[in-house]
Queue: 4 jobs
Job 1
Amino acid sequence: MRANAATPLSHPQPEGVNRARIRSLTQVLAREARGDDLPGIAAEATYHCLFAIPALLVVVAALAALVNLVTDVPIVVHLRTIILQSAPGEAKYLLVSMVDDAVTRVGTGGATLGVFSASAVALWSGSNGVLALVKGFNRAYDVTETRSRRSLRLMAARLALLGVIMITTAFALFVFGYDLGVWVVERVGYGERTRLVWELLRWPASALLVLCFLALLYYLGPNVAQSFRWISPGSVVAAVVWVLTLLGFKLYLALVNPGLAYGAFSGVIMLMSLLYVTGLAFVAGAEINAVLERRYDPATVTDLARHPQKLDRPEDVTEAHRHAVNYQRRQRRRRGERDRGKV
């Protein structure tokens, strides 16, 4: 980021000053988004994640078949129905055959090796996608990567694994939650009360899982110290944009048949478009956090002032020092106001 110093905070603030600060931060955010090439980072993350999709589908199909076998919940039936209703063109038959093959392997006990190898491929490709996002996050904060390659790869693999678990669980709660709730009610008891509690909780639980993953991604990804509460604005914005993107794609598919324009490639094109917009939303959330944290987060302000070797350019070092001075002035002003209030 190449932003000017933020206006120091004072307490309380006139409404006009607050609006001026919001307008200034919005202008800085727009300028930084153009300068940091967010579309390029999103495209790189999309490229890597695309390779993880086939392997991930194998894992999901095998897990669905296993749940179907253990709980008698018709997960596989619903999965096949969703594929036949939503997948475009010839892709639906390929996906259905993958599900059927996973069911056969689980039924004969031969799914372990296939799930293990598919999970390894998905984890490797997913970690490459996470590394692409981390590069975008560092660009948003104007920092260089000083962590070792080994620690960076391990961190990316852990985040990719958490992402697969959390987002897959959120998807399962969203799509198969009702049938799983019926199975839980039958096992736990308490009838209608348990079912009602499950229905009320599974929706916020799905959203919470996505928010938690984004928070961990934003907290661990950038090569800069942060206070956990300051990553909330970007996490919320990215999650809302992602949900709106899903709804927008659903509406588009309900109104338009992409197969008429793209033929047999429509499924791949729609998937790439969804992944690209998702990556763009995630990087934009990091950009929002960076604009705010470099000015107001004590951990980030202190870290960048004490470790100038992380910063890209000499002017970034000067800017970090200026933000640190402004932060110290705000702290002294607040302490003075508290002391006067005690008198």
Note: The mean pLDDT is 76.
Job 2
Amino acid sequence: MKTVFAALFLTAAALPAPQQAAVAGKWKVNANIGGTASEMDCTFTQKDDGALAGTCEGEQGPREISGKLDGKNVTWQFNTTWEGQTLTVIYSGVLQSATKITGRVDVQPLSVSGDFSATQQK
């Protein structure tokens, strides 16, 4: 019995770990927040631990982002200003395929939300 358990343990230990999904690169993000459509171009860099960094550029210019990829769950955020108030825009989505992310976007502290989709650009 010990031999069977040891063999199973060694076999499982020899299997490669599941590969982390990749979102590094350029993405076109389309959002509808509170009835207002927007589009921006984001460039993500990704570390081995899933941490995301990069920039998203839209009408107000480039914004530095921070985020995380955890399995197929992708989150990123950035700060911006509107009428003198600092806002945090938070994207929370799911990697639907290697080239598509869909999810929700929330603007805090205004508690305004909407949907987004992102498509990886070549």
Note: Helices lie at 2-14.
Job 3
Amino acid sequence: MYKNALLGLLAALAVFGAGWGAAGWLYYSPRLETAAQAITTAQAAAARQKASAEACEASVGRQNVALADLRSQLAAAELEALAARQAAVEARAERDSRAQGILAETTPAGADVCQAASAAFDAELRRERGLK
């Protein structure tokens, strides 16, 4: 009798355990599938974001290279402009000096002013052309 009661109790526990397991499976299975889908979706989104970040990083790298190139071009242009300015200042000083020399020339006493101016002009042209 105890044996039958024990077997009945074990059978009831087995049925109860199977029911409990089935109920747990029915309850948790859809949730696990939803969680697995969410993980798959999150992994795909993470992969897309990683690819986007890598593309942005590559773009920033190219822009940094271009910016460095522009900076070096700017530095070279500034040096060239400085040299051109210095050359212009020196050329101006030389021309100013020559102009002051021409202005300092005097017409000899008793000479015709027009002929003296013409001679001075011709002499200046010869000096400019290196004919002397």
Note: The chain has one domain: 2-129.
Job 4
Amino acid sequence: MFKVIGTEENPDPDALKFVLNRPLVEVGVRQYDKARDASRDPLAARLFALGGVKSVFCKGGFITVEKSPNRSWDDLIPAIIKVVEEKAGTDKF
């Protein structure tokens, strides 16, 4: 089971790194700059479906999400954590 064990700020205030308890991506990276690019990745597609998500980057044991400037992290953080913890362990990548 995947758990989000913390978050880390980035120089960009609209991007936030979600640190996981174990690696999600064993080799390489998964990067999506548009929702349509994530159509084959159920986890990334669910993150984009939250609304206001501009990009998703996954590498090793973290996921970085960039949001639209008009969205609040107060609303997105709990929703992102829920999606990650529900979907990360159920999908094949």
Note: Residues 4-87 form a domain with the Ribosomal Protein S8; Chain: A, domain 1 fold (CATH 3.30.1370.70).
